[in-house]
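REQUEST ID: PR-0412
SUBMITTED BY: lab tech R.K.
PRIORITY: routine
TASK: structure prediction, single protein chain
INPUT:
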Amino acid sequence: MVSVLVVNDQSLQRLALRMLLSAEPDLTVVGEVAGGGEAVRASTLLRPDVVLLDDGHLSGTDTLDTIRRIARPSRLPHSPAVAFAPAPAPAPAKADSSTPRVLVLTPAGQEAHAYATLRAGADGFLLDDAAPNELTAALRVVAAGDAVITPALTRALIDTVRQERATRPPRRDTGLDNLTGRERDVLIAVASGWSNAEIAEWLSIATTTVKTHVSNVLAKIGARARVQAVTFAYESGLIRPAA
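STATUS: complete
OUTPUT:
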């Protein structure tokens, strides 16, 4: 069962999302909040698998700060209780201490904001006019540890990386030297959007071996999830965006 915390400042939209997700047998909404500060505290208390964050009504700074605090939690200062709407039956506590994944719903026209949001720790993006089945599928993918980025957002990400690389010299200490040849191959494939099964077939290795390589790559480059590895591949020059 994938547990979801909904972050949206519109009460009707929160209700609609709860109804949509609750209709899926493998998805459950464990809470819903209106703002970033509430989202951070609720994610700490409820420990959802995925935080579904609609950034259409938050400022860019608020969105980035919220994502950082959820994706890279530190001990929160003691503060008064904050009212938020938990699910009727609270989810049982998880046995592990993994942090929630963050799936961002973003309005069309704000694709360029995706790069900064990725670096803050987001695990996926979806336009806020996505079809219901696209949203539910994206939640499952992100909960499993994979990345979700729409083609339009991928294009914006590549364009942003290209512009940044044109205005500043590449960093010498990128972390690429720490990767083996096979790990570089896996990173290239991940950055190209290939699934573990496709990478396994390409390299003629087991899917479990691919998962091990991906985990090693993430650890060596200091990435939290596959989507940050994609950003790293472009930033480091391992993959060069086509002109």
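NOTES: Residues 75-84, 87-97 have pLDDT under 50 and may be disordered.
REVIEWED BY: pending
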